TrEMBL record:
PANTHER family: INACTIVE HYDROXYSTEROID DEHYDROGENASE-LIKE PROTEIN 1
Protein name: Inactive hydroxysteroid dehydrogenase-like protein 1
Similarity section: Belongs to the short-chain dehydrogenases/reductases (SDR) family. 17-beta-HSD 3 subfamily.
InterPro entries, sorted: 17-beta-HSD3-like (IPR052149), NAD(P)-bd_dom_sf (IPR036291), SDR_fam (IPR002347)
């Protein structure tokens, strides 16, 4: 909740008078974000410092910190993208564990901690932010795109499991969004109506909460998602390979 779409989404919730718990590994960013949001929107913010790459050990402190809180909306936006597209064997073992711990384990564990209380109250919403890259297998982004596919399928299945208990689970599938943490923005200097800022994206996405349980969250991304779904797989792979090779060359030039 201290950067990118997560931070922008938090600001949109705060603008509607909703108190926040922000979780991130960067305490200084957390404190700065929490202070700015509290002052701007006159709401209460609590911060929890947690490094999700550490795996199972970090969840007990989170469980203790939230046990007495009535949490109505959970937004899972933790993510570790590729620094640049690369072949699977060029990714270190540590980085692979980061993909698993952040893109998959964190979402599962946070829901497992908070969902029981939502069910008791018979109301609640869970937003899992995945990616439009889940549409098709993406070479040189195999781990990342596969993790996003997992999040999408997991969210949709969870919605069908718990919708009857008053829980709304949304799979949010953005394409490119301009923010400081987006490693792929360089080389993708495209128009703002295709790649909106994180704040513009969050404003559109939050309006779909409670309405659509699977959405790209932004009108142009919905058009992109529709094309991607019906695009032949070979065409997707060809286009993704061209784009990823270009990014690899740019990364090599910078190094």
């Amino acid at each position: 909740g201290a950067d990118g779409i997560g931070k922008a989404y938090a600001e949109e919730l705060a603008s509607q008078g909703i108190n926040l718990i922000l979780i991130s590994h960067d305490r200084s960013k957390l404190e700065a974000t929490a202070t700015a949001i509290s002052e701007m929107f006159n709401i209460e913010t609590i911060i929890i410092e947690a490094d999700f790459t550490k795996g199972r050990e970090i969840y007990q402190p989170i469980r203790e910190a939230v046990k007495d809180k009535e949490i109505g909306i959970l937004v899972n936006s933790v993510d570790v993208p590729h620094e640049h597209p690369q072949f699977f064997l060029n990714i270190s073992e540590d980085k692979l564990w980061d993909f698993i711990n952040l893109n998959i384990a964190a979402t599962n564990m946070m829901i497992h901690i908070l969902l029981p209380r939502m069910i008791e109250r018979k109301k609640g919403a869970i937003v899992n932010i995945s990616s439009g890259s889940c549409c098709k297998p993406t070479p040189q982004m195999a781990s990342y795109s596969s993790a996003q596919t997992y999040l999408d399928h997991f969210s949709r299945a969870l919605h069908f499991e718990y919708a009857s208990k008053g829980i709304f689970v949304q799979s949010l599938l953005p394409f490119y969004v301009k923010n400081n943490s987006n490693a792929h923005n360089d080389g993708l200097c495209i128009y703002s109506w295709i790649a909106p800022s994180a704040n513009v994206y969050a404003r559109h996405a939050i309006s779909t909460l409670g309405i659509s349980h699977r959405t790209s969250g932004y009108w142009m991304h919905s058009i992109q998602f529709l094309f991607a779904q019906y695009m032949p797989e070979w065409l997707w792979v060809w286009g993704a390979t061209l784009m990823n090779n270009r990014m690899c060359r740019k990364a090599a030039q910078k190094s």
